Amino acid sequence: MKVEAISLEKKYHGAVEHWQRHNFKDYETLLDQWEKYFPTDERFCLCAKLELGTSDTIAIGEHKGEKKRLEPEQLSEEEAAHLLAIIKAQASTEFGSIQQHAGTLERADDDQDRFWVLRVMAEELRHGYQMLHLLLSKDWSHVSRGVSGEQMVEEILSMQTGNHVLDAFNLDYDSFIDNITFAAIVDRVGKYQLTMQRICAYRPMADSMPPMLREEAFHLAAGVIPMRRWAQRAAQGDPFITMTAIQHAINKWVPRALEMFGDERGGETNVKFGFKDLKNREAQDQYIEEVQKMIRDINLRFIRARFPAYAPEQADAALAELERARGTHHGVRREDLLRTPDRRFFRRKGEPAFSMVGVDGEPFTDAEEYLRYLSRHLNEGYVASRDMRNYAEALRGVAAGTLAVKDAIMKMPKLKRVGGTCPCSKGVRWVMDGSAADQAASA
Amino acid sequence: MPGTETGTRIRPLDELDIDAIVRIDERISGIYRPEIWEQRVGFYLRRDPGASQVAEAGGKVVGFMLGDLRAGEFGLEEPSGWIERFGIDPDQRGKDLGRQMFAAMVAHFQAGGARSVRTLVDRKDEGVAGFLRALGLSPSPLEALEMRLDAKPTESR
């Protein structure tokens, strides 16, 4: 594979670096320690990367077989507006996840785990940079409703946890368990989106995907591998790591991850325009299957650690027995293992929005009972959050018949902060060389 | 993404293959060592994602081949593909899966500019050495040297 590396115009490159100094303070630590944790790996590059030599033919949709579009003006107005929204949403997720990771990064109990997450954050920064390149390198003015490229960048870099485009990026992390679980569960949706967009009819978007996907492979490993090790520690009786704590994090993130695919009944437009090759439900079905496999593997890791004399087949049999009979196996209960939450569990968007369904698919009819159930299946820090309070208010309204589901959906997420501001410059983040603000931020 | 085929297929390694690799290794070596494979899979997924390959039969991973594209080591400036570890479930041998994984890795290495594939093998392990020879690898002018540190050198030069 041949890749072209591109830097943004100095003004915008500086804006991203300025954002990094406020939102990703450990970036320099990562670069300083790179050789220790990632010896012989290529040094990190804050740049856009475009894969060369990809297909120039549209693979799907109503323009299938035609040449891929190279300029936004070559797309119809509707197509260009749709793609612009996708790019902006993608940019929001990349920068948003860094802000989330930064909140609890220092609580990692293992340096390797911490530096793996730091690398994930750096690569998310590059992915955000990539999306800014897509916004700035071409003229979108015919569909941007008068918003200039500069203003779009300003808008994206002003977002904070609470006013990002997608709900999954508006939740604070409660512990380092969230850093890891998020990488395993939410980054997995990212992998699906990037994979689907590899065929995008707009070639600069398609060419952006392969380098991002290669980096995303490690992001998933940075989630799954620590989760596997934690399952081992939990099985061996480590008092600080429990399967319950991991399950509660899974319960927090899987519903938001499922909603990142969009409404289960939608996605046809993306396929019609040739931007993605799967509709929402198709992609979500595959995703759920993958999460189920991940969780089964982690459970097997737990069982092998609890029963070291077991052969693989004995561990398989024990797990199958626990899943089927939901009883106990030499002291291990079904509840001691991880489960993939039912796809309708704790949903606030999409087809099952505000239905009351438990982790294992059990139905509830009373909103208060369901909220008490949620409080037992989510971690304490999250239960006491504003996000949960907003959800509970909306759910009560839906259950009482005073709020239509579609209106309840529109209330999510409730913005905590309207329009972020840069701590040192009150919203103006264009950086002049040697400005006082810049020096203050880097001090 | 999950496969749906019932036949065999070769695809790049991902993080959900760890369990299958641990099992294959355990079948071959008789040792359960998940930590080693978690570390190695993590290494290759960050080092050169897309290089390492697995073989699936009936939707189940039955073989793996791990390696990466490197340059600048041991004075070898030109990029070379390196094969480090591989294994095939004993029940699935003889189906050409090793050759297919190797071909996929070679394609990846060539796309990255490699003009050679390298590995190290214990000559006493005739099974592995024979497999590598059958793939087309042959003795290299480069020589692997070592010195035991638990015994005195017999002579100094």
TrEMBL record, chain A:
GO terms for molecular function: oxidoreductase activity. One of its GO terms (biological process) is phenylacetate catabolic process. One of its GO terms (cellular component) is cytosol. This is Benzoyl-CoA 2,3-epoxidase subunit BoxB.
From TrEMBL, chain B:
Residues 8-152 form the N-acetyltransferase domain. Coiled coil: none annotated. One of its GO terms (molecular function) is acyltransferase activity, transferring groups other than amino-acyl groups. It comes from the Bacteria. The keyword Acyltransferase applies. Pfam families: Acetyltransf_1. InterPro entries: Acyl_CoA_acyltransferase, Bact_Acetyltransf, GNAT_dom. This is GNAT family N-acetyltransferase.
